[in-house]
Specification:
By secondary structure, this protein is mainly α. The protein contains 21 helices and five strands. The chain has a five-stranded mixed β-sheet, with helices on one face. The N and C termini lie far apart (about 80 Å).
Length: about 525
């Protein structure tokens, strides 16, 4: 292939530093109106986002990382503490409005884009292409959507991006302890792990990079430093049972324990193949192109083609191929063993910026290769070629309007009634009452009551015994799948034990008193 210096300084009409400023300003002035256009003030009907908020407020109040929604206020082990810690900083600095936390996620998303722009420049040695691909990536449906939700994915992207950029600036000849970038890499890497334990995959990628480089000094120092920063979290959890996420791995279906637990290599192979097929045929293409996965019409050919192009993009990178490939493979290795009922782009979202860049960069390199074979002058065609990627903006734009319409849409009637019921209980039932419900953290958010989830047991008598043992006071029922499966049989058998206290209509939501008198 003809030697073509993509970053030839002699071809730069604009000073590179000035160009960086111009590009960052373009990103900023494109981001602000877009984000305001799609910003959704409503809280997402997801249990996790409410959990993060409740945990973050507990930290901000000085209670520590505890389950403030249960009577015992026990230590939290369902999530690492990183994102709640960020929320606590926002709460103590700017206030505890939910919209403030959501906008903080938007700030972190923009910061991620800026850092990724610099990282892409480092690994491609092409500032103009890095800007264009970052600009296009900014409008991806899933990245924009999660930037308005109180979820941990965006903060995880931010800190993994800081770690990758720091890695790219480390000079191997310099002692780790005399390199500021090394400290930033380790601290951001460890904090990313404390946001989502998937951060172990990035550590694996960096480990492989130093291993293949035979840079024993950085390999050993990075490993020891990373482990040392994780030890306090593991010591803190040493007297606790496994987290709900870890516990979920053992069940064939986390939402239906009656299907049993994973047994033998056959069950694990079924899980692996199920996840592998779904990610390749549906979720990876959906993440790249920004559309909803269609699990009934997944396309293996498109999925495999995308992976081939991403692989070629990695191969053509100027630096850090092993670190990036290791991070991607490590992440998907983790996702392959997760329950198959955990579907959607969410779990691979931290990789989406990298995958989009590598996919488009792979296409770019393939087109350069083809044009060179056809004897085109690459110095002329390259500049034109890069602008073709703005096609992806027009691909993403309809989904921006989808997000805007969702932001403008009134709260779903079911959610409206659910939150209204929570607010009603705050004023009308005993403060120390314990309420059973679906999405308990969301109910706690608006009621301030102690809450717990629906008891997952198919034996009505055992359910009643558990209710009595745990001193549960009320239950909220609105006909969701879990409640119908586990609570409805109990109610049909013992209707007198669940008198209706309050009902909201259209759609119907019931608050029932739990009477366990006489239960042994």
């Amino acid at each position: 292939m003809t030697k073509y210096k993509e970053n030839n300084k002699n071809n730069n009409i604009i000073n590179p530093k000035v160009k960086v400023v111009i590009y960052l300003l373009i990103l900023l002035f494109a981001f602000i109106p877009t984000y305001n256009h799609i910003f959704d003030k409503k809280i997402a009907f997801l249990g996790d986002n409410a959990s993060y908020y409740v945990f973050g407020k507990a930290i901000a109040a000085g209670k520590g990382y505890v389950n403030a929604h249960v009577v015992q206020e026990s230590k939290v082990n369902s999530f690492p503490p990183g994102y709640p810690a960020i929320i606590s900083v926002v709460v103590n600095t700017f206030g505890d409005k939910i919209t403030t936390i959501k906008r903080a996620n938007g700030v972190m998303y923009f910061m991620s884009l800026v850092i990724l722009f610099f990282f892409f420049r480092q690994i491609s040695k092409n500032i103009d292409l890095s800007f264009k691909l970052t600009f296009v990536m900014m409008f991806n449906f899933y990245l924009l959507q999660y930037s308005t939700w109180m979820m941990s994915e965006i903060s995880f992207i931010l800190f993994t991006s800081i770690s990758l950029l720091s890695l790219s600036y480390i000079k191997a000849s310099k002692s780790p302890w005399k390199c500021g970038w090394f400290y930033l890499m380790i601290l951001s890497l460890a904090f990313a792990y404390h946001i989502r334990s998937q951060g172990i995959a990035l550590f694996g990628g960096i480990f492989l990079y130093y291993l293949t480089q035979k840079n024993w000094k950085y390999l050993i120092t990075t490993t020891i430093s990373f482990i040392a920063l994780l030890i306090p979290w593991y010591i803190r959890n040493s007297d606790m049972t496994t987290s709900p996420y870890s516990n979920a791995l053992k069940y064939k279906n986390y939402y239906d324990h009656s299907q049993g637990v994973m047994q033998g290599i056959g069950d694990w192979m079924d899980r692996f193949t199920g996840n592998f097929s779904r990610y390749i045929s549906s979720e990876i293409p959906s993440a790249i192109f920004g559309y909803e996965p269609n699990y009934d019409a997944g396309n293996w050919f498109i999925g495999i083609l995308i992976l081939v192009i991403i692989g070629f993009g990695i191969f053509k990178l100027k630096k850090y191929k092993i670190a990036i490939a290791g991070y991607i493979l490590g992440t998907f290795s983790i996702l392959m063993i997760w329950p198959t009922v955990w579907t959607g782009v969410r779990f691979m979202l931290p990789l989406v910026p990298l995958l989009i860049f590598l996919f488009l960069y792979g296409i770019y390199q393939l087109m350069l290769l083809a044009l060179d074979k056809l004897k085109f002058n690459l110095k002329i065609t390259d500049k034109v070629l890069q602008y073709l990627f703005f096609i992806f903006f027009f691909l993403y734009y309809p989904k921006i309007e989808t997000l805007h319409k969702e932001a403008e849409r009134p709260l779903n009637p079911l959610y409206r009634n659910y939150f209204a019921m929570a607010k009603w209980t705050k004023k009308n039932i005993d403060k120390d009452a314990i309420v059973l419900c679906r999405k308990p953290m969301l109910f706690h958010l608006y009621s301030d009551h102690y809450v717990n989830g629906i008891i997952k047991n198919n034996n009505p008598e055992e359910v009643l015994k558990q209710m009595k043992k745990s001193n549960y006071s009320y239950i909220v029922f609105y006909g969701d799948g879990l409640s119908q499966k586990y609570f409805l049989p109990v109610y049909k058998k013992y209707p007198d034990r669940f008198p209706i206290v309050q009902k909201l209509a259209n759609p119907d939501i019931y608050l029932m008193k739990i009477d366990t008198s006489g239960i042994k």
